[in-house]
Design goal:
By secondary structure, this protein is mostly beta strands. Helices cover about 5% and strands about 50% of the residues. The protein has a domain of about 210 residues. Strands 14, 15, 16, 17, 18, 19 and 20 form a seven-stranded antiparallel beta sheet that branches. Strands 2-6-5-4-3-13 form a six-stranded antiparallel beta sheet, with no helix packed on it.
Length: about 425
């Protein structure tokens, strides 16, 4: 059974209330009401996919490595395809426009991507002639916002009126905002609130399968694709690469963001903890345990008996102190905190042998020797760059920053910059 979060989000948006000092609490008053301008959802989605010449990136997202190619997500817009056969001099091949996209994963030249909650499959066997294979509607998630165009700004309004709007058939392509006089009774009947004082309701890659970074929401393990969203894991049988089968969702006790596997164990990063699932029966991930922390954004990677979790506790992520949590997972049923190291504002994380790579946001890329997890030693610190996520390959390290792809080569006791590729 797929998600019912669409309804939750509709209710949440309906309950959103702006400030209005000039309203009369007893008699109601003048309110700005936004009504969506809509288009046919099917046509909207069909027009949201195209392959074009390279274009400048607008907002750096996640990165994915497959064969000699690097795919860089342009948040909510699609992904840039880069030929990396010569890491010293990479060059852009194309831009695959795929609106509503945040993540991809690839197996045997079949690319799987999200787009407005749908699962999109593409054939990239000829990277210069990418073909659309299939679009599975609502296969990943069905949140209400998935039907809002990526270039549509949310207007300033006291209320959002969705009466008659059908998220299963329509896409929002704009807004009409009008001033309306509403009584207290009308406010209660139509929006379920008593006026402007109500509460806000928003509370090195193989030839077969590619490799994503620690911020990935998609993960392919053998013949299964796992996709995390909000509080559930969507599971797909991709033994037939062109015809995935949608299996039963697995719900997680918390808001989740990232996914990583070590063998038959999934480690799910969430805003309130790390969740461990057993996929020895791959069609049905089974809950094992969880490690709870304060509210923060939380990618995780695992090496042997230790999970490395970066927590970023600023802005919308929460108020937890930003830093690196090292968690002992030798006993999967009872993970325990081993050590905490403060950081400025970390994002992605990765490792290669004894090295640990941490993207510490505006404080740059930090490389540690993790031989002794209780005494991490800083090996290199690349400052004055913005860092987002890393992929440690066999011979080199990929890192995405603010519209720049960085590549580093491993040395005996440190790493050095190999190349930069400006996506602007």
């Amino acid at each position: 059974m797929k998600k019912t979060l669409g309804l939750v989000w509709v209710i949440a948006v309906l309950a959103f209330i702006g400030c209005a000092d000039d309203k009369d609490d007893a008699q109601g008053g003048e309110y700005l009401v936004a009504t969506p301008i809509t288009a046919d959802l099917k046509q909207f989605k069909e027009e949201a996919v195209a392959v074009t010449e390279p274009v400048p990136i607008k907002e750096s997202g996640k990165i994915y490595a497959y064969k000699d190619y690097v795919f860089v997500n342009d948040v909510n817009r699609g992904f840039h395809v880069i030929d990396n056969s010569n890491p010293v001099n990479p060059h852009a091949i194309s831009f695959i426009k795929l609106e509503g996209n945040y993540d991809i994963s690839i197996k045997n030249d079949h690319l799987y991507a999200d787009s407005y909650g749908d699962l999109v499959i593409m054939d990239i066997s000829d990277i210069n002639a990418v073909k659309m294979v299939k679009r599975m509607e609502g296969a990943i998630y069905q949140q209400f916002w998935c039907t809002v165009g990526f270039d549509v700004d949310w207007p300033q309004a006291d209320f959002y009126d969705y009466e008659g709007f059908d998220a299963s058939k329509e896409a929002i392509v704009g807004w009409e905002v009008k001033s309306q006089r509403l009584s207290e009774e009308e406010l209660q009947d139509k929006y379920g609130v008593g006026g402007p004082n109500g509460d806000v309701a928003f509370s090195n890659t193989s030839s077969e399968t590619g490799q994503g970074g620690s911020l990935a929401r998609f993960k392919i393990v053998d013949d299964y694709l796992y996709a995390v969203e909000w509080s559930s894991i969507s599971v797909f049988d991709i033994s037939d690469l062109s015809e995935p089968k949608t299996l039963e969702d697995v719900y997680v006790n918390g808001a989740i963001e990232t996914i990583y596997n070590q063998g038959d164990i999934l480690f799910i990063g969430g805003t309130q903890g790390m969740y461990i699932y057993d996929i020895s029966s791959p069609e049905k991930p089974k809950y094992v345990s969880e490690f709870v922390h304060g509210t923060a954004c939380d990618p995780v990677v695992v090496d042997g008996d230790y999970a490395f979790v970066t927590l970023r506790g600023e802005n919308s992520c929460g108020n937890t102190e930003s830093g690196l949590y090292i968690v002992d997972v030798s006993n999967l049923a009872s993970p325990e905190l081993e050590k905490f190291y403060p950081l400025e504002g970390p994002y992605g994380i990765g490792f290669k042998d004894s090295w640990l790579f941490v993207c510490d946001g505006d404080d740059g890329l930090k490389v540690y020797d993790k031989t002794d997890v209780n005494d991490l030693k800083l090996v290199s610190h690349f400052k004055d760059i913005v860092t987002y996520d890393v992929i440690p390959l066999e011979e080199s390290l990929l890192m995405i920053g603010d519209k720049v792809l960085y590549q580093y080569v491993y040395l005996n006791d440190s790493i050095r910059l190999l190349s930069t590729f400006d996506l602007k």
